[in-house]
Write a structure and sequence with these properties.
This protein is an alpha/beta fold and 341 residues long. The chain has 15 helices and seven strands. It has helices at 2-10, 17-28, 34-47, 51-64, 91-101, 120-126, 135-145, 152-155, 160-169, 174-178, 197-210, 268-280, 285-302, 308-321, 323-332, and strands at residues 76-80, 106-110, 147-151, 189-193, 214-220, 233-239, 242-248. The strands form two sheets. The chain has a five-stranded mixed β-sheet with strand order 1-4-5-6-7, with helices on both faces. Strands 2-3 form a two-stranded parallel ribbon. Mean pLDDT is 92; it is low at 335-341.
Length: 341
């Protein structure tokens, strides 16, 4: 069946939602060869993925994933597509820690580095925060600490069949886009960083069909998969099925414009060091600002404030009184790695 679908794609046809779901089912079941998987990913990247294809792929991945119990919690996820090649520290991970310190339950979905210098799992280990949760442990951590980390390979075990082809072809694929839309806790509120605005538009249509309460899909003008502190950012806000697009700059919410070099790192250890300084409120202005900006936006997504600007103000106050760092000490149980001491 996958051979026939590949032939259709090679002839310029796109997959219907049903065909895409069946294709991903074949991959998830281990019935597709590495060559077939690599071929499909390459074809889709070359011609561009459609909303129908993303819907089918997401539905299949969700049906094959392990989920966690989060009933009664209005959870949020801060997850990016990766693939921006800008070598920034783990901004969305720092944002998740900040949010949880403010009482917002965060089910952080992430992985090790695939297309970046440091994945969220890599940096959390350096910070002494547990990443290898069972679903039961994740649910308990969410209840006790307002934060759990959902390590993608544990919850999307059927994805193991695509790992080798994805690494071998070495370029961004549709899986960069699918990951943020397959949160194992089924988060209905999300801050999704997308490295390309055209992809963000397709993802916005996809999440609107799949169901969301509020999702912000954000793209920095430099191609950053976060709200940018160094440039303007484009935001697609999805409330239910309604969408609006607008731009935002750091100055719009009371922050100074930063410098890209001040938020770039080369290793997970460097990323952890920057995050630690941010949580203490002692980072350079660019690093402190970009986490404040994204956490403020996520606070708006959660419904705790009425605007991103109000969210930024609330985050600044949390840093000033030391709540964020104290919460981090609870999360890490003081077990910081040597480089962070």
């Amino acid at each position: 069946m996958l051979k026939q679908l590949l032939r259709s794609c090679m002839e310029g046809q796109t997959l219907s939602e049903s065909e895409a779901e069946k294709a991903m089912d074949e991959i998830m079941a281990g019935n597709a060869t590495p060559s077939q998987i690599a071929s499909l990913l390459t074809i889709l990247r070359f011609r561009g993925e459609t909303v129908e294809e993303m819907l089918g792929f997401v539905r299949s991945m969700r049906s094959h994933s392990i989920t966690i119990e989060a009933s009664g919690l209005d959870i949020i996820d801060t997850c990016g597509t990766g693939g921006d090649d800008l070598k920034t520290f783990n901004i969305s991970t720092a944002t998740a820690i900040v949010l949880s310190s403010m009482g917002v339950p965060v089910a952080k979905h992430g992985n090790r580095a695939v297309s970046s210098k440091s994945g969220s799992a890599d940096v959390l280990e350096k910070l002494g925060i547990q990443t290898q949760h069972t679903p039961e442990e994740a649910s308990q951590s969410l209840l006790e600490n307002q934060l759990c980390f959902l390590f993608a390979p544990l919850y999307h075990q059927s994805m193991k069949h695509a790992v080798a082809p994805r690494k071998e072809i070495g370029f961004r694929t549709i899986f960069n886009l699918l990951g943020p839309m397959t949160n194992p806790a089924n988060a209905k509120r999300q801050l999704l960083g997308v490295y390309d605005h055209e992809f963000a538009k397709k993802m916005a249509e996809t999440v609107a069909v799949l169901g969301t309460e509020r999702t912000l899909l954000v793209t920095g003008a430099e191609g950053l998969d976060e709200l940018s502190i160094t440039n303007e950012s484009t935001v697609i806000e999805v409330n239910g099925t309604d969408q609006q697009i607008y731009t935002i700059s750091p100055e719009d919410v009371g922050l100074e414009r930063g410098i890209l070099e001040e938020i770039q790192v080369s290793t997970p250890a460097e990323s952890a060091s920057v995050i630690l300084s941010v949580l203490k409120g002692e980072a350079n202005p660019s690093a402190q600002g970009i986490v404040t900006l994204n956490a403020g936006a996520a606070l708006y997504v959660s419904g705790r404030v009425d605007s991103i600007e109000a969210g930024v103000k609330a985050v600044k106050e949390a840093f000033e009184v030391g709540d964020v760092y104290q919460h981090f000490l609870v999360l890490s149980k003081g077990e910081l790695q040597q480089h962070a001491k």
